[in-house]
Amino acid sequence: MKKILNYILLSTICTGLWGLSSCSSFLEENNKNTVTADVFYKTTEGIESLVNSCYAPTRIWYGKTVGYLLTEAGTDEMQFGNTANGSYPYFDYNSNLQATEGGLIFVWKSFYRGINTCNTAIARIKNSPLPANLKAIREGEVRFLRAFYYYHLVETFGAIPLRTQETTEPEITALRAPVDEVYKLIFSDLETALTTIKGVVTPQGGRITEPAVAAFLARLYLTRDKNTEALAMADRVIKSYDFKLTENYKALWDIANSSGSTNKEVIWFVNYSENNTLNDYGRYDDLGYYWLWEGGHHGHLMFIPYFNGLKGWQYDLESGRSLLQYMPSKYLIDLYDETKDARWAGSFRTVWWANDPTTLPAGMKLGDTIAVVSKRAVTDTYRKSKPYTIYDANDVYQANGVPVIPRWRYAGLWKFADPSRSAKDVVNSKRDAFVFRLSEMYMIAAEASMKLGNTGSAADYVNVVRKRAALPGKSDQMIVKATDMTLDFMLDERAREFVGEQLRWFDLKRTGKLIERLAKYNLDAAPNVKSYHLMRPIPRVEIDVLQNKTEFVQNPGYN
User: Residue 266, SS3?
Assistant: First the structure.
């Protein structure tokens, strides 16, 4: 009897009887402990359960602690928001960023687990009892997901083991496939998926659709400098499907619009539930890190300040529970012209209100403004004229842009707030994690056009995004010209549009700007970052078990 425990580089991989239960609209878990995988997967119920389980690892990255650490930390737009001076290794690339770091191990194991599940499904779908048309769709979904996991692994770790067959026994040797070879498989899988899922365009609770595949291809073509293909695929998503930009940028992020199934700007999303039992909580306890990484969407915890000691204020459901993980860099807040760009107020919160009757200062009522964070410096006269506390740019940042300690009080990235949680200390949020949005397709088309020498067309694409971002009556002031189209402008505009959306580290790596921009805008990280940080260390536990360690070498710069 074949066991339902498989292995990849001696890491235990459960391949099928753990469905993605939180997608309750279409993903149902149905464990059959008394049957073998071979028997179960030959049933309609079994193969659907197997395909559903291929989705599960998406939830360890998007909207989660480890995903934020590998995409937002250590960039030009975010710095460590606590009393420590950027001491966490992901933020400032210090010497603790090594192969024993738990988050890297968790990502490696989780995504290879997902890949092995996908390999199992691809091998079994063709002999399943599903109708022919549904077989094609399910295989397309699974190939998309395999490409999705390989993309995150290859961009994070560089050359990696390439597995296309179900692994059922421990392997004690492994080789790292070149990046180009990994991408060859990624593109092959996505091109197959684009054909087999053709015609499936309606959101289905987080399932892969044809436009999701096209959007992913557009992002990856840009990543690999295939600009003609990136432009064509981004245009396809813009023109061929029924997506539209949300008219009001702030409304895009309202918790009422947080379902990817109904938000018309969202092309594909990782879904979550307000019921934490439907969010895979405890799913990865065999990897040892579930208590840090699982549950619902965690973005609402990561980016907001904490006004410790401020009389008349306490954190509550409305103001959010802060983990003080990230604060915006001075570079980031200076990017926004709040007099014309709605994305400043649509992304950040700068005003807090009195909510603690037990410490309320004399003369102040509940609901009165109690604290304001100003992105600009204010005069002493202005400060004294107000009954509330002001934290201005000079209170938050030193002249060189390094945050002032303690790093507690700053403009809070509010895009992921969830005041609908049941209580102030509830960690999980029902907010879906938006992976591809329509505005990204415009920005991909713009960057690809610029690289192809058509700066006029590039400006046209950017201006669609900027007009949506304009405050009422300010559209003309938001228009940019062909001569504005530079790589640095594109990165600035992407920061304004996509801050916090787990794209930034990949953007800086893709454009070759990571080190340059950290030197200018993130002095926490600038002294430590080196060229080898464009790859993360391969988890040591994966190398230690191999017999061919001399062939499977660690990435340069890491122990």
Answer: strand
**Tokens at residue 533, please?**
């940080």
Three-state SS at 488: helix
Structural domain spans, the chain = 35-184+512-558, 299-429
Q: Which residues contact 309 (CB under 8 A, 6 or more apart)?
A: none
Residues 6+ apart with CB under 8 A from 254: none
pLDDT number for residue 168 = 83
DSSP 8-state secondary structure symbol assigned to residue 386: S
Residue 387 CB neighbours (<10 A): 10
DSSP secondary structure letters along 350-374: -EEE---TTSPPTT--TTSEEEEE-
- Which CATH number does 35-184+512-558 carry? 1.25.40.390
Query: In whole angstroms, how far apart are CA 401 and each of 208, 258, 499, 518?
Result: 42, 33, 18, 11
Q: What is the mean pLDDT for each group of 10 consecutive residues in the chain (559 residues)? A: 31 31 43 66 95 94 94 97 75 94 92 97 96 97 98 98 91 94 98 97 90 98 98 98 97 96 96 81 62 78 94 96 94 98 98 97 96 97 97 97 94 97 93 98 98 98 98 98 98 98 98 98 96 96 93 94
Cβ atoms of residues 378 and 392 within 8 Å:
yes
Query: 297 is written with which tokens?
Result: 């969407």
Contacts of 220 (CB under 8 A, 6+ apart): 151, 183, 186, 187, 190
The reported pLDDT for the residue numbered 265 is: 97
Q: Dihedral through CA 495, CA 496, CA 499, CA 502, nearest 10? A: -50
Task: Report d(CA 214, CA 234) in Å as an integer.
Answer: 7
268 φ/ψ angles, rounded to the nearest 5 degrees: -150, 150
Q: How far apart are CA 461 and CA 445, in angstroms?
A: 7
In angstroms, the CA 218 to CA 198 distance is 16
Cis preceding linkage at 328, omega within 30: no
Q: Are 254 and 227 in contact (CB under 8 A)?
A: no
180 burial type by CB count under 10 A (0-12 exposed, 13-18 middle, 19+ buried): exposed
Closest CA relative to residue 493, chosen from 524, 518, 463? 463
Q: How far apart are the first and last CA of the chain?
A: 41
Alpha-carbon torsion angle 155, 158, 163, 169, nearest 10 = -120
CB neighbour list of residue 462: distance below 8 Å, 6 or more residues apart: 442, 443, 446, 480, 485, 490, 493
Compute the half-sphere exposure of residue 50: CA atoms within 13 Å on the CB side of its CA: 32
Residues 6 or more apart whose Cβ sits within 8 Å of residue 289 = 102, 103, 105, 106
**Token pair of 2 as six digits:** 């074949």
Provide the 10 A C-beta neighbour count for residue 43: 15
